[in-house]
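Quick start: load a record and inspect it. Here is Tryptophan--tRNA ligase:
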Amino acid sequence: MQKIILTGDRPTGKLHIGHYAGSLKNRVELQDSGNFDEIYIEIADAQALTDNADNPEKIRQNVIEVVLDYLACGIDPKKTSIFIQSAVPELCELTFYYLNLVTVSRLERNPTIKDEIKLRGFKTSIPAGFLAYPVSQAADITAFKATLVPVGEDQLPMLEQTKEIVRSFNNIYGKTLVEPEILLPKNKLCSRLPGLDGNAKMSKSLGNCIYLSDSEEEVKKKIMSMYTDPTHLKIEDPGHTENNPVFIYLEAFSNASHFAKYWPEFQNLDELKKAYEKGGIGDMKVKKFLNNVMEETLKPIRERRKYWENHIKEVYQILKDGTEKARQKAIETTKEVKAAMGINYFENDSWIKEQENKFN
Ligand code: TRP
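Running the structure step on this input writes:
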């Protein structure tokens, strides 16, 4: 069987270092492993509209930001097809058929949806499209016969629903769809970086993110004013590294060569942590080190982003080509789906022949 990856993001804003540590870095590694026959990354604009119907401009503007962030991180359009969800109408078509295989109460039980409903304050005014977006996500995944879906933990319920739909479809109409496997981030710590302010989540609405597109100065300013250990008042005081975002970022991004280069007094993070916990290490010093570490990671990303910002026509072509490739694949699968359901009236003459025989 072919090995096919599909994953995606909603284009609701620029991507930040949490996205990088939690998924983009891993996507690039998967892409460059050479282990996959096809790789697709979807810009899920239609899904983003399920809770932004009143603000389509936000989605329209952020599509390009997300593509630029992908390219900046090393997503290679020769190996990965980047496509726009709404430009593949077959995904809507599949969604409409899959909706019949899912009950409303099942949709209401999806834990991620429940969280999001609370977070967005929908109460009893839940847009129907929003409640049903996991079904549309099942269409995204199955249209490409994806075998592997690398996503964050919050997407587990979506994958569960997708598998249920696949089983149900194959049971009723015959084996047509492929059941996907989820690939969760290896490193738990990286799967959700805290915000600069110590909040459990890095999010645009909280204004506590370092964006992949931030300038060197912006990054430095943000790091230098980060929340650390509030009990670490004097340099000599013992410090806490747990729940300390500075140390969590170091956990996610630093390695031994960073220490050799910028802080040779320590060989690795464990040594620095011990010293900080004992007391005698100032927060400013740790932050300066973190800034050096982040710069090593972000500089090449920033430079690649600049390059693509200056080549928007090429970016447009990349998106167009990626979407064309994705569309062909989705058309193929949709044909198979409709054939399995017996609603492919004009694909060949088998339906009309049957009808003729019925009447003659
Ligand atoms: N729901 C995903 C998110 O919010 C985005 C997404 C849409 C997706 N379609 C997908 C992820 C298909 C994986 C596969 O991040």
